[in-house]
User: Fold Glycoside hydrolase family 65 protein from Pseudonocardia charpentierae.
Amino acid sequence: MSPDPGRPFTVEPWVVREPSLDMASMGVTETVFALSNGHIGLRGNLDEGEPHATPGTYLNSFYERRPLPYAEGGYGYPESGQTIINVTNGKIIRLLVDDEPFDLRYGQLHRHQRVLDLQAGTLTREVRWSSPAGKTVKVRSERLVSLTQRAVAAICYEVEVEQPALIVVQSELVANEQLPTAHGGDPRVEAALHNPLVAEQHRSDPSGATLIHHTRHSGLRVAAAMDHEVRGPEGTKITSESSEDIGRTTVICRLQPGTVLRVVKYLAYGWSSRRSLPAVHDQVRAGLAAARYTGWDGLLDEQRTFLDDFWTTADVEIDGDAELQQAVRVAVFHVLQAGARAERRAIGAKGLTGHGYDGHTFWDTETFCLPVLSHLQPDAAADALRWRQSILPLAQERAQQLGFSGAAFPWRTIRGQECSGYWPAGTAAFHINADIADAVRRHVLITGDTDFEREVGLELLVETARLWRTLGHHDSSGEFRIDGVTGPDEYTAIVDNNVYTNLMAQLNLRYAAEVAARHSRAAARLGVNAEEMASWRDAAKSMRIPFDEVLGVHPQSEGFTHHEVWDFEHTPAEKYPLLLNYPYFDLYRKQVIKQADLVLAMQLRPDAFTPEEMARNFAYYEAVTVRDSSLSACTQAMVAARTGHLDLAYDYLAEAALVDLNNLAGNTDHGVHIASMAGTWNAVVAGFGGMEFDSSGLSFAPQLPPALSKISFGLGWQGRQLRVSITASEAEYHLVSGPPMRLRHHGEPLALADSPVVRPLPEPPFVDPVEQPYGRAPQARHPGG
Assistant:
C-alpha cells in the first residue's frame, strides 16, 4: 500500500517501508528506523552519514554534565543536569565510485527503499544510483543491533556495478561528530556539549580499529571497536588506520558487472565509570570476538529466534484497520527495544532513538512501559526496578535535603541525580515515588516472583512509604492530607490533595505495610516495626480524597472545579501546545488539563470509583483536557473503553499508536514517544480487553469497537502464556502454555486448561456522548465519524 501524502511509510503488517527517499521526513525516518537493544541505540541514519537530520549513536546512561541555568537560584535546586550524548558513530560506511562520493544529493537516484522488519529485527536499504559521471551502482545494506549479544551491532554492506568501476569503501568510527544545535542556543549548554569526548587511546589492525574516549565533565569512559569480513574480487585490498577521533578501514577493488563486493562490519561498544582503560578496551574486543565467532548469518539467526519467541506471546492482531495493526506492532517493537538489554539501567522517555528530553527517564517508565514489559519481557521489567533500587541512596539523600524521611526519587534523571530545573513540575511531582511502588506491586502480581518482592520490592516500598508518611499530615479532622504537590497534569501545579497522588500514595502505604508484614525479618533489617506499619495503614485509611458534591465529580485537586474554565473557543489551533504560548501562571489557575490526571487515577485505581463516578468524571474531564502531552491519548482511550465510549476509545487508540509513524506531535525527529507506544498496548489490553488484576487473580471485560472485526493479544501471567481473542459477539481465552488457571470474564469465573474457552459478550451499554474542548477532539476513525 502506498504511503499517504505527508506520511513517508507504506502500511504493511510486519514491516515499516519507506519506498523512496523523503528528505523532508528524514528526522522522522531516522527515529522510526532506529535500532536498539536497550544498551546500544543507533538512529536510522543513512550508511554514508549524509544527508542527515540528527546523527545519533547512544549508549544507555552514558551522559555528560551540563549547567542548569536559573534566573534566580534557590535552596535544593539541582546545580547541574545530565544529557545523553552522541558517542562514537560506527554506522558510517562511505562509498566512492571512480573517485566520486556516493551522495544522494548529487547524480541520479533511480531507486531508494528502506525497510524496518519487525520480525527479523533489521533495517535494510536498497539503492540504485548513478554518479554525475554516469557510473551506476546498486547498494544493499542490512543493519542490526543484537538482542542476544548486548555489546554488538553489525552491518552487511554490498555493492554491485553496472559498468566496470574502481570502488572504494571507507568504513569508519567517528567521535565528536558535528551535531545540530539542540539546546535552544544556550551558549553554556552548547559549550559543555561541544566535542564532549576526550581521546585516550586509538589503535588499528588490518581489519579494524578501536577508539577509547572519556567525557570531560562526567568522567565516563567509552570504547568503540570495529572489525570487518570482506568478500570481493581477486586483488581486493584492505587497510586500516586510526587517529584520536577517527578509525577507518578502507576496502578497494576493481569491480566488474555481475560481481558483488560484500563488507560485513562488526561493532562493539562498552562504557564504564569505574573500569580502567585496559579493562574497557578488552571488553569491546571480547564483544567483537564473540560477534565474529557468531558470524553475520549467526547474528541474523539469533535475532530472528529471539523475536520469534517474543512475538509468540507479544503479538497484537487487529482486524479492520491495517494502519492501526502496523502501528501497534511498531509500538510493541520499540518498547521491547527500549528495555530488552537495559540491564539495571534506566529506560528513557525516548528509549535510545533520539536526544529528546536529554535522554532522561521519568515516571513514564514505571506507569506506562513496565506494565507491558512485566507481561511480555519480565526480566527487563525486573531490571528496570533493580535500577531504581540501585539509585535509592541518592533518592534518600534528596529526601533528606527536602526535609523528609524515606526516598524522593528524581523527576527526571539519567544516573539518579535530580535533573529538573523547574521544581513546580519536577520536585513537586512526588507521585513518581508511588508510581515506582505500584510498578513493584504489578510486577509481583504478574510474575508471582516473591523473591523479587523480598529482595528488591520491599526496600523500594518501605522507603517510598516513609516519604508519604512525612510528606503528608493528619489535619484537625483526622484526614491525611498531601499538600503542595503536582500531579500528572503539568498545567495544574503546587496543589493540595491531588486525587491521583493521594490514591497512589494510599496504595503505596497499604502495600508497603502488607509486604513488610509478609517479609517481617527482611523488613526488620530495614528498621521497620509494627508501629511504623500501623502508621502507614492509618494514613492510607484516612487519606483525603476530595469530592465535589454539587457537580458529583472528583476535583482533580482541592478546589479545582471552582477555577475558571479556560476559554477554549477563542484559543486558536496554532496556540497549542499551550505551554509554548501562554504563561504558566495563567494555566495554573484555570480549568485546563495538559494530560490525563484524574482520568489516569481511574485507570490505575478503578477500585476507588463507582461506575457512576467513573462515567461522570470521564465526561467532566474530557471537556477540559487538551492533550498537549503524548501521554494522554492512551489513557483516555483506556478509560473511554471502560466507560462504554467505544468509538471514542478507538479514536484515541489510533492517536496514541500513530503518534510517531504519522508525526502527530510534530517532534518525532527527537525520538519515539515510548510511553505512548507502551500505552497503546495497555489501551488494547486493559481498554478493549478490560484486563484487571489483583491478589485474587486476573479478570477481563472485553468489548470491541464497531469498526473492528477482531482483536487478539497475548500476555504472560505467573509462568503462563495466555491469548485472548475478541470478536463482536464473543471472547476466546486460550492457555497457550503453563499450568491450569482460573480467571473472570465480565465477572463470571472460568477455568482454563487444555482447551480454549469461549464466552459471549454482553451488549454494550448506551452512553451519552462526551465533548472535548473546542478544536481538540481526536480525529474520528469510526464509521460515520
